[in-house]
Structures are given as structure tokens and as C-alpha cells.
Amino acid sequence: MRSTLHRTTLAATLALFFAGASLASAADAPQATTTSAADASQTVNVTLMLHLRDEHGLANYIQQTVTPGNPNFQRFLSTAEFARRYGASDAEIARVQHYLASQGLRGNVMANRVTLQVSGTLAQFSAAFGTPIHSYRLRANGRLYHRPTGDVVMPAGLVGQVDAIVGLDNESSFLSHRLSSPHLPQAAPKLASLNAIGANRAKTADSNPTASGQPGEYTVGDVANFYNINPLYQRGITGKGSTVAIVTLANFDPADAEAYWSAIGLTTKPHRIEQIHVDGGGPINGGSGETALDVEQAGGLAPDADILVYDAPNTNASFVNALAQAVVDNRADAISTSWGAPEIYNFAALNVDGARVNDTRDVGTLRAFHTLLMEAAAQGQSVFAAAGDSGAYDTVRGLGHGTGPGEFSAPLTVDSPASDPYITAAGGTTTPFSFAFGNGPVASVSQESVWGWDYLQTYFDTNFGQGVVDLFSVGGGGGVSSYWRKPFYQYFTRGIRRTEGHQSLDYNDPTAGPTTLLKLPSHFAGRNLPDISLNADPETGYLVYSSTDGGATAGQGGTSFVAPQLNGITALLRQSSGHRIGLWNPQVYFLQAVFGYGRYSPFNSVNGGDNWFYQGAPHYTPGAGIGTLDVSNLDAFMRFRW
């Protein structure tokens, strides 16, 4: 798995070429100016999440569906059954609809009876929820958006009926977790060169024929080689009869995925991609490459699975609506998303420029995702999310880090929705390889390690001097949630951590000086993430084909790749076992606790590297979770252990 990648240039700027949407979140408040009251006549869509009838009972039922020997083991619910057991009653829905109608608003209840999509003007929503809505303009790029100026007041008619209100703002809060190598790459491979990739492939008998064997140019075939997927293919397990879903915030051209599979020599089921455009669909933009790679990876690992692509605009409400549609449709056996934002952006303190420190009441998006993810788990849908690409410091990618005027601090933080306990958080590793930049010496990563670019930082500091490049804190996302408590499946896992002390997000205002925007809880027993990791370092990364990015590009990585890879692997497990897999987390944590690591274990520990804070270890670590997979062994347990 080693090769030497000689860089002919030290990359004049060594800028990080992040692929994805620009960040505009509540944490931008110090960098935004109020323009005026928003256009009161503007029509917007807002999503209300109704109160689950029995959330505690639902949590118990989910646990039972993945507990061997329980009468409800693998007895997953249909959407109608979920609605009947846990959705709002007719009377509750009628009360909510009555209040909305009194404000001139119309709501459509989805089939799960917990998601209510409401349409109206900003003036109507402002009156209904007791807060003016103003327009803001970002100083950095001039982008205009609107949001409430104060607390959202839950009307008496909705108290006890509504858990979350999402969409009173149209801030684009989510980034795709895709990165490029931190150097100006040599000429990126064209599609024609992909057709000749076989010349460089390893010729061992058990090697996947679509693999390249070249770090930075890996394909789904290399993933199959790394994580022992090939024995499933040899048994005819290709995802036949399975369906995967991609939830994304950008549209794409399905021909890109077809071109990628064809170019690497992979035979796939024809006409298997179906696009579902939610809230008018996502744009064709810089994020389209994210959608392309998600489909290429999930569909490449499961070449006979059907693929549903739910794309939506990059707003809180539309992200929630896209996930809601994928869950309520209940057609997909597994769902993945490679978009996210720092969990702490959902906290109310960030919406008021630090005036209310430690106020975490405004967590509507977190609660909305949580309800939908619980429904997915009860329906047997496995859901995966990228854990982020900013190492243990999730705000750095969007806000930077430092102590100077106009700069934000860098607290230990995690990404959402990956931090939710009912989703499997996909982390990142670096696979073994050798490298050299400019006239520097050849260096190597000798074992699969937690992905963190501090190994490159050390290389540059040592060979080219301090300050030449700043790569902090690029790496696989991971850490401890400041909101979600430690879930039951992590109670007895060695290596689980609590939040660190003295963590806060601070902004150094150029005129007013340092201001604490949010103090994070110290030593909180929160949900740890990631859960499972696979190769994600762009230096040992992948080929992607996206027409919006100019065709085929190499040196692509990020935990964006791992989430759809786990999605595709689930399609294989679903075909092999004959049933949906359900929520991965309780099952994989149990298996790791009982069987540990070794020749017959489904897992490989990740003992080296770090994500700038959490180090690799021969047990669970917030750098890489349980570790990486031996998919063939995992399949054997899923088929035979019950």
C-alpha cells in the first residue's frame, strides 16, 4: 500500500482547497450587520417537529430490535406502524393545525405524524412565534440572510405539542466534509487515464480488479482490499435487492457516477439512480462534487443496489426536510449524509453575540434530527454521517483559530448530525504510505493511523521552517458531545471520555476586545464519536469524477467518503443477511466488547496517529472510534451469531 508521492512544488501558498458550501452560521453574528426588518411578504417554509407520544418507549423498542433473543429483535416498523405507535394523535394534530390556521398558516403533516411542514410569510411566522425577523449581511462576502432577532416564543396552543421549530432563518449552516490534498497537485488525472489505471494495479490473486493501489488515486476497489470486502463479492454479494439513500445539499449529474464506475471497470446495475428534489432541490454548485462522490462510493461498493438521492437547499429546514423525506419514504435500507456543522452552532448563546452565555435552549435542529433518527432506527434504517474534517476542533474549519483581533478561539467540539446517539458517526484514518514534498526527505506513515495532519505539520516545520504552513486542525472529526449524553451502548466501552474542562468559544472583537460567546460544560458524560473509521486522509485519498469540478480529480478525501462507504457496506450486509441491519451502534459496540480485536474480530484497532488531541489506542478512542472494519468477519457475525 505504499508509494512515494514526490511533490515538484511546495505549493506556493499551501492553501487548503476545501470543497463545499461556504459557512454562514449563528456564530457569524460578530461578523454580520443588521440591514433592516426582513421582507414581511416573503414566503418561507418552516418545519415543526411534533412531540413523540412515548419517546422513552421508543428508545426501549429500538434497543430491543438490535438485541438478540428479544421478541422484538429485527422486528422493524413500517412508517405507518411508527406513526400509529409514536406519532401525534389526531387530537394533538388538530390543535396544532387550529393554531396555525388562526395565524393564516397552512401545515402538511407527513406520514410519520411527527413532521409538520408549514408554509407562510415571514410576517405571519413573526406574529405566530413572537419575534421580529430581520435581515443580516455578512461582512465577509455580502451574503444576505434573515433570522429572528430574539427568542422564539412557543404559543400556548403549541406548548407540549411541538418539540422543535426549524426554518425561521435561512442561514446556510452546513459544510460538505470533503477535502483536497494540502498541496497544489500535479496534473489531475483525466477520465481517459482512469481507463488505464489497471496498469498500476496490484496483481495478487485476491486483489480487487478495480483497485488502483495508488495513494491519492484509490477507488472503491481499494476500499474492498483494505477492509476485506472481496470475500462477499466472491459469494455474489453485490447489494442486490438493497436500496441506499444519499441525503445531500447539492444537486448533481447522475452521469458523473456512471462515468466513474465505467472508467474503473466496475459493472453496475443500470438505471438505478433516482433523484428526489426536496424543497425545490439543491443547486448545482461547488457542493455537487460531494453528491457525486457519495453516490460513486456507496454505489461502487454495492454495485447492484438501488440509489435514492435526496437533494435540498443548504438551509436548516431543508436539511431536516430531506432527511425526513428519506426516513418517511422508508424505501432505503441505509442512509448517509456527508454534510454537517459544529454541534455548538445550535446553542442559543451564539445567536445573541454572547449576551446569554451557556443558554442551550435553542437546539431545534438537533432535536429535529434526533426525532427522525429515532424513527429511522425503529424502521431498521441504518444511518451514517461524516464526523467532520477539523479534527477534535470542529469550529476551526469554518471560523479559524487564534487570539488576535477578529479571530475566534478553538474549543474542543464535535460535528452534528454525527453527534446524535442514533446515527453512526464516520471517522477517518490514514493508511500506510510514503511521501515527500519539494526537496524534502521521504517520510512514511507505517501503520493505519488516526487521521490528523499534524504529521504533515511536523514534516513542514522540520524541513522548511516554522510558519511556512498552518494545517491546524485538519483531520478526522471526533470528541465528546456537549449536548447528547453518553448512550447506553457506550456505558461499558473502554476509552470513552468526558468533555475537557475550561472550553469556550471566544471572539476577539477588534473594537470591544475578547468576548466569550459560549462556555462549554466541563467533564460532561457525553456521547463519544466517531463510531467506525475508514481511510479518509486526502494524502491516501481517492479519485472522484464530477463534471462541476472539471472531470476526474485525485487527492480527494475527508470523512465524506467514509459515510457513503459504510452505506454501501450496509447494502452488502443487508443482502447477505436477508434483512435490514438497523442501528449499527449497539451491535458493533457489543461485538467489540465481547470479541475485541484479532484475526476473527470484525474490527481492527487504530493504534497510531491523532486528530490533534485524541490519540490512537488499542481500544475505543475519539480519534477513530472502535476502529476500522473487517467486513467479511462482520458479515459472518451478522449472518450466524443470532
Quick summary:
The active site is at 290 (charge relay system), 294 (charge relay system), 560 (charge relay system). With 642 residues, this protein is α/β, with parallel strands linked by helices.
Explain this structure to me?
With 642 residues, this protein is of the alpha/beta class. The chain contains 16 helices and 33 strands. The strands form 9 sheets. Strands 12, 13, 14, 15, 17, 19, 22, 27, 31 and 32 form a 10-stranded mixed β-sheet that branches. A 4-stranded antiparallel β-sheet has the order 2-11-29-28. It has a 4-stranded antiparallel β-sheet with strand order 5-6-4-9, with helices on both faces. A hairpin with a 4-residue loop joins β28 (542-546) and β29 (551-557). α1 crosses α11 (364-378), α10 (316-329) packs parallel to α11 and α14 (562-577) runs parallel beside α16 (631-640). The longest helix is centred in the C-terminal third of the chain and has 16 residues, at 562-577. It is globular, with a radius of gyration of 23 Å. The two termini are 36 Å apart. The model is unreliable at 1-29, 184-193, 195-203 and 349-361 (pLDDT under 50). The active site is at 290 (charge relay system), 294 (charge relay system), 560 (charge relay system). Its cofactor is Ca(2+).
